[in-house]
Amino acid sequence: xxxxxxxxxxxxxxxxxxxxxxxxxxxxxxxxxxxxxxxxxxxxxxxxxxxxxxxxxxxxxxxxxxxxxxxxxxxxxxxxxxxxxxxxxxxxxxxxxxxxxxxxxxxxxxxxxxxxxxxxxxxxxxxxxxxxxxxxxxxxxx
Amino acid sequence: xxxxxxxxxxxxxxxxxxxxxxxxxxxxxxxxxxxxxxxxxxxxxxxxxxxxxxxxxxxxxxxxxxxxxxxxxxxxxxxxxxxxxxxxxxxxxxxxxxxxxxxxxxxxxxxxxxxxxxxxxxxxxxxxxxxxxxxxxxxxxx
DNA sequence: TCAATTTAGTTAGGCGACTAACTAAAATCC
DNA sequence: GGATTTTAGTTAGTCGCCTAACTAAATTGA
Lengths: 142, 142
Description:
2 copies of one chain form a homodimer.
Chain A: H1 10-31, H2 38-47, E1 51-52, H3 53-60, H4 64-76, E2 80-84, E3 92-96, H5 98-118, H6 124-141
Chain A binds a DNA duplex through residues 19, 22-23, 26, 35-38, 52-54, 57, 62-70, 72-73, 88-92.
C-alpha cells in the first residue's frame, strides 16, 4: 500500500493548520499586548499564581531557557513579577500582575473565538470525533 | 452551552500535537543536517527546481523575509544555490544542489516515519475521517 | 518619454523555541 | 563536615517566523 505523504498527509494538514492558527492567533493576541506563547504562560499563572519556573516549564512543555528569557520580557512589559524564594534560593516564584490579569481576560475571549472559528460547520458529533482522534494522535507522539 | 476552552479544546489539542510533532521532527531532521522548515523548502524544490523566491513564498505560506534569510543559510550549508534571473533582474531562481537532493531523500523517509507515528492505531476509516475533519478545520482558518 | 506605482528581495530587529555551557544553591554521600 | 552530584535558572548563540523599512528593477500611465 502506497503511503500518503507530502501535501495529502495528516502530518502536513496539521502543519498547515497550526501555521494558520498561529498566524490568526498572533494577530488577535497582539491586540491584547502580548505575543504568541505568552498567552499559555498567563493561562497557567491564572490557574495557579506564584508557581516556580520549573513548574511552568513542566506544564508548558518548553525548555527552561525559553521561559527564562520570556519571563524577562514579560516582567519588562509588566505582565508578571518574579520573586526569589527564600526557602530555596535557587528558585523564583512567578506572579501575575493586575495588567497580566487584564490581558488574560482578553486571552480567554480570544481562545474562545479561535475555537469557534476552528469548529465552524462541525456538528457536536464531528467535534467529539475530531477531539478523540486528536487525542489518539497526541498520545502517539508522547 | 458552556464552551470548551483551555486544556480540553480542539485548539489546544492542535497546539500540543504540533509542539510534539515539531520536536520529534526536528530531532530526526537534524540527523539529515537540516533544520525544521528547511524540509518543506527542499520538498517544493524537488517538485519543481529553479523556482523564484516569490513562488516558494506562495507555496510555503511564509513571508519573503523569512525565506530570504533561510536561503542565505541553506546556500551556506550547501543545500541550494541562488541564481539571478537575467530576464528579470529583480528575481532570483533557486536550485537544489546534489547535497540538497540527498538531504531530501532522507526527509521523505522522515516524513513517512512521522506519518506512521501519527496514525498508529487508527484504521483506514478513522484516518479518512480525521483527514476530512482536518481539511474542514483548515478551510475554516483560510 | 518620464514620473509614479507596483513588484521582488534584502536587511534590521523582535519573539518563541532549542541546545550547550555556565553559575549558584541544595541535596547526597562517604 | 566536606567533596560530589543534582537541581534551578541564566546566558550565549542558532533557527524559524514575523513586521517594518528599505533598495532596485519592472510596469503603468499621463
